[in-house]
Inverse folding.
């Protein structure tokens, strides 16, 4: 590794660690070349032939959100805010996943859409679909660049690798295997990544619990290290904004996160929904997100618990990245620090490979979703309406490569203007919450009109941008929108999502009342009142998605009570 | 996974990856048995039992999902 630098790093790799990392790159490239022969038609390339089992689609679904940015970021958030961060894995995910599987998936699946903007095209028309597709395509490719840059920075901080080396090696590898196998490659890699992340990170909580003497021992150490501060209860500290380090009230978590932002992300963000659309039949499509929900519930074990253990066992106190002084470590470094604390040669290579795989799977997810939305929702309806299937597959392959080149450009842009990174990540959030309002109203209310879909989505998005800008420019707006001057970044995001979705719904309803609805014959298979959803009366209760959805919700409630 | 395409199941690749990684970690753990690395709880020899676990799981997946002439 000629790119290894002499600068002090968090961990040092041995020869066996490098072999483990190199083997991962070789394996994913080999799988990509192997899968190329199967990705011939548009259905194959963009939707993996629609033949994934519920388990594969479910693991890919949850894995698409288990990238390294999330792992490092949420472990850091757990260190910063305590177990409150687990809300984003539990109430901020499980009800939405169950809702997607039971309520929304039948409409996506029966309409045979290739994408979420594709559903909007069928339900509303090209205005709402075009707005959604263009914003999604731009944001996805920007996020891929941010992901790429973040990976390069992590590799530099943790291992001392050169930033250019990390960017080019990872993006070329992702470009080759996604352009070869399309969504097949992306999904295969996501499933591999899922296992890597679990086996690479699970030793941290196991050894951490042994070191601290179990949960109670860990809590005692945290209280000893940080007297008077609350890090180990989920709901009790949210009676008021002042009682918790996040500055959030329980209404922000329940309504902002659980009812709007999580619903928006898990049910309308095409990056994750695309994985479920690859399922082989309706039952698999309904089961996939529910299977994913059980794994999602377990993720705090390898993300939140290491962050809490960091509070208990690390000899130094971590600080926000903005306050970092030489010799200090930021919150986001807690996971690599814990990895270095417990893992020697071999295990360290496995942990680092898991992080690299997470970053690469994130990039692959972004570019494969970008290629689909660009080809099917922008190029086909607006640029070239009639072409052969082979032409669209070729376009998808080129899009993958072009998307990666733009991502690399974005990575270098972010490198030179670091403040852009936060704004790009914020931009992505602007569209998710209002899009949920537009899609859900479209599915459940047949009266909603074409114009209402577009104007509601636009108004919701603009209101989100407006709130974000006002809160950034003048801190006094925080107490208006987030209901308290104490609200921190995450708390502000929750209320911003809530109000933008409310704006979208109100505008959609008002415009609907003064415009003409589509005739029923054009809405068959797209809205609740006009769609015959196949019943599963003959399936045993063990095979019914609704039963497992209910089990997931019961487990969720039990977890809330345990960690109240 | 794929009745139409006869693709080698993803689970076989998962098993192969776990098997190779388990073997490397296990051997590495045995090699450093008498000189454990400078990590917390190194005396528990985590690479040995964790590597062993990966080998066993990898073997199970590889044997169960070995592609038998379909591809």
């Amino acid at each position: 590794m000629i790119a290894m630098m002499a600068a002090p790093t968090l961990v040092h790799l041995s020869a066996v660690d490098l072999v483990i990392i190199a083997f991962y790159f070789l394996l994913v490239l080999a799988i990509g070349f192997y899968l190329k022969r199967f990705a011939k038609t548009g259905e194959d390339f963009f939707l993996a032939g629609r033949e994934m089992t519920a388990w594969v689609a479910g693991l890919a679904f949850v894995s698409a959100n288990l990238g390294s940015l999330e792992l490092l970021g949420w472990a850091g958030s757990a260190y910063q805010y305590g177990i409150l961060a687990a809300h984003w894995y539990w109430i901020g995910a499980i009800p939405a996943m169950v809702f997607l599987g039971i309520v929304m998936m039948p409409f996506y699946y029966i309409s045979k859409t290739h994408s979420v903007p594709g559903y909007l095209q069928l339900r509303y028309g090209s205005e709402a679909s075009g707005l959604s597709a263009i914003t999604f395509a731009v944001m996805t490719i920007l996020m891929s660049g941010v992901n790429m840059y973040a990976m390069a920075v992590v590799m530099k901080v943790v291992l001392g690798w050169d930033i250019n080396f990390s960017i080019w090696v990872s993006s070329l590898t992702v470009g080759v295997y996604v352009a070869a196998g399309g969504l097949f490659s992306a999904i295969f890699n996501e499933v591999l990544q899922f296992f890597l992340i679990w086996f690479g990170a699970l030793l941290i909580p196991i050894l951490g619990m042994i070191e601290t003497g179990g949960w109670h021992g860990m809590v005692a150490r945290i209280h000893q290290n940080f007297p008077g501060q609350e890090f180990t209860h989920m709901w009790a500290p949210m009676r008021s904004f002042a009682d918790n380090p996040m500055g959030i009230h329980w209404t922000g978590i329940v309504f902002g996160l659980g009812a709007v932002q999580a619903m928006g992300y898990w049910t309308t963000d095409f990056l994750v929904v695309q994985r479920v659309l690859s399922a082989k039949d309706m039952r698999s499509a309904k089961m996939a997100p529910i299977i994913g929900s059980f794994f999602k519930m377990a993720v705090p074990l390898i993300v939140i618990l290491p962050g809490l253990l960091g509070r208990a066992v690390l000899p130094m106190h971590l600080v926000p990245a903005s306050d970092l002084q030489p010799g200090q470590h930021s919150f986001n470094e807690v996971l690599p620090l814990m990895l270095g604390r417990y893992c020697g040669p071999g295990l360290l290579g496995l942990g680092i490979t898991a992080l690299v795989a997470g970053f690469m799977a994130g990039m692959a997810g972004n570019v494969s979703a970008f290629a689909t939305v660009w080809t099917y929702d922008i190029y086909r309806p607006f640029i070239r309406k009639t072409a052969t299937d082979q032409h669209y597959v070729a376009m998808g392959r080129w899009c993958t490569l072009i998307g990666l080149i733009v991502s690399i450009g974005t990575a270098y842009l972010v490198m030179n203007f670091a403040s852009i990174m936060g704004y790009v990540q914020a931009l992505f959030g602007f569209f998710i919450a209002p899009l949920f309002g537009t899609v859900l109203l479209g599915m459940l209310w047949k009266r909603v009109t074409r114009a209402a879909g577009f104007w509601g989505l636009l108004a919701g998005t603009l209101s989100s941008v407006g709130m974000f800008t006002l809160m950034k420019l003048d801190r006094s707006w925080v107490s208006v929108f987030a209901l308290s001057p104490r609200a921190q970044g995450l708390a502000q995001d929750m209320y911003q999502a809530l109000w933008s979705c409310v704006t979208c719904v109100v505008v959609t309803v008002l415009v609907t009342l003064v415009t003409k609805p589509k005739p029923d014959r054009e809405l068959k298979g797209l809205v609740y009142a006009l769609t015959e959803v196949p019943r599963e009366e003959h399936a045993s209760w063990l095979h019914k998605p609704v039963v497992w959805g209910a089990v997931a919700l019961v487990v969720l409630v039990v977890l809330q009570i345990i960690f109240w | 996974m794929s009745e139409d395409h006869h693709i080698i199941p993803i689970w076989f690749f998962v098993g192969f990856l776990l098997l190779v990684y388990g073997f490397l970690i296990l051997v590495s753990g045995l090699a450093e048995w008498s000189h454990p690395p400078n990590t917390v709880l190194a005396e528990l020899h985590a690479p040995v039992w964790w590597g062993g676990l990966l080998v066993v799981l990898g073997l199970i997946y590889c044997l169960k999902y070995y592609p038998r002439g379909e591809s």
